[in-house]
Structures are given as C-alpha cells and as structure tokens.
Amino acid sequence: MTAQLTAAVLGVLLAGTILFLVRRDHLHGPYALWWLGVAAATLILGVFPSVVPWLGVITGISYAPVVPIIVGISMILLRMLQLDIERSRQERQLRRLVQKIAILEAEMNTQRAPSSITDPAISTQLPEDGDWHENE
C-alpha cells in the first residue's frame, strides 16, 4: 500500500465518519463542514500528491514535504481561534441571560411586595410574621 492510497483511504474514512456523526446528530452543521473540508483536503493530497510540490513552489517553501504540516498546523490554529470566538459568544449570551433572569426576579419580587404597605387598611390585613405571600 502506498502513502497516496493510505492518505486517500484515510480521507474517505474521515468523510464517512463525519457523515455518520452528522446523521446521528452528534455533530452539527458548521462543525461538520469544517471536518468535511479536512477530509476533502486529505483525500485530495492522497489522490494528487503532486499538489504538495506545486504548493511549495507557489508559497516559496523550498522543502515541499513540510507544506502539509504547515497547512495542518495553520488549520488547527484557525480552528482553535474559531472555538474561542464561539465560546466567548456563548459566555456573553449566558451572562446576558443571567442578567435578564435577575431583572425578572427583581420585578417579580417588586410585584409580590405589598405596594400599598403604607396604606394602613391593607397593611393591617397582612400576617405579622412577614410570610404574606405564602398565605395566598
């Protein structure tokens, strides 16, 4: 088995695994696209190994076999950046949600509190232990 065939088989297996995970709803759309791109790149490099020296010439890298490693590390760094951006967005959403819940709780407590407690007619009807809202 040649290295080209091994890379092509790995690309096909990776693509099949990704499609299986998407079908089982273990992997969502944007993430699946990313991994399908990785599988396609693996398949292309496996089927067309002459792409690597061509990329080396285009990018000016004199030792062409290092091109896939540089591209792979760059893709991993981009993926990590994307995950950090997504995590930051989720944390911001969670913080805003917690703030909204706190505001709603404060409004509910304000509505539950006797607004007319200064009204002597109503304030005399409240229980003296302060547990007025549980007696309703």
TrEMBL record:
It comes from the Bacteria. Pfam families: DUF2304 (PF10066). Keywords: Coiled coil, Membrane, Transmembrane, Transmembrane helix. The chain crosses the membrane at residues 6-22, 34-55, 61-81. Residues 80-107 form a coiled coil. The keyword Coiled coil applies. Residues 112-126 have a biased composition (Polar residues). Residues 112-136 are annotated as: Disordered. This is DUF2304 domain-containing protein. It comes from Pseudolysobacter antarcticus. The lineage of its organism: Bacteria, Pseudomonadati, Pseudomonadota, Gammaproteobacteria, Lysobacterales.
